[in-house]
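Look over both lines:
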Amino acid sequence: MSRDARWKALLELLVERGRLDVEEAAGELAVSAATIRRDFDRLAEQQMLVRTRGGAVVHGVSYELPLRYKTARHASEKQRVAKAVAGLVAPGEAVGLTGGTTTTEVARALAVRGDLASGAPALTVVTNALNIANELAVRPQFKIVLTGGVARAQSYELVGPLADGVLGQITLDVAVLGVVAFDAVHGAAAHDEAEAAVNRLLCERAERVIVAADSSKLGRRAFARICAADSVDTLVTDSGADAGTVRRFEEAGVRVVVARAGPAGAA
C-alpha cells in the first residue's frame, strides 16, 4: 500500500471512529506500528489530526476531511449517482455545479456523454469549484463560468462576496448540489457556512435543483444549512438508501432517483 493510500485509509477510519490507537491502525492496514506512528506524526504536522499518547483523534465534531482524501470513500456509489445525474441534464442547458467528490464525478460523466461532444455550447457550466473548472476547461464544447471568491483548501471551492456577485447576475436551468448531509426535515447542509451561502445562491438562481448524494449522506445533519428539502426537486442516490428515508423525502415533495449497479444505471 502506498503512503497516499495509507493516509487516505487512516483519515477515513479516524473520521468514522473519532479516535485511533497505533496498534489498532497497524492491524487494520497490515503495516507496522512504527509506520503508523510516522504517518500520524506527518499528518499531525499538516493539521489533519491531533496526535495523542498512543494514537490520534480528529480535531472535533465538525471535522471536515479535505477533498483530496475523500475520493476513495463510497467511490462506486458516487460514480453511479453521477451518471444518473448527468442523464437528467439536457443539451444546451446552463448547469450549476457545487464542489465535492460527487459533483466532480458528475462533471466527468457529463464530459463523456456522446450527445455533448459538440455544440455552441453543448453545455454552459457554472461552478465555484476550481478542480471542476480545471477538468472541464479542456472541453471546447463546454462554456465554463468560474465564480470569483476566496478558495477553501478543504474543498477547492470559491466563497465570499466575489462569488456572490457573479451568481447574482446569472440564471441556471439546473443546479446540482453536492452535500455532506441531506435530511427530509432539516434539509441540505454543508460543514462550512461560507460554502453553504454560495450553494444556496446557486439554488436560488436555478429553475430546478438536484441533490447528488450517496446513501451515507441521507438522514444526517450538518452545521450549515444550504436549503430546505422542499427547495429540492430531485434527489439522486444509490441503492443503499433506506426505504423509510426515501419515503420521507418523497412525502416532502422530493422526487427520488435511485442509481443502481449494472447497465440500467438508474431506476
User: Anything to note?
Assistant: The chain has a mean pLDDT of 89. The radius of gyration is 19 Å. The chain is about 35% helix and 25% strand. The CA atoms of residues 236 and 267 lie 10 Å apart.
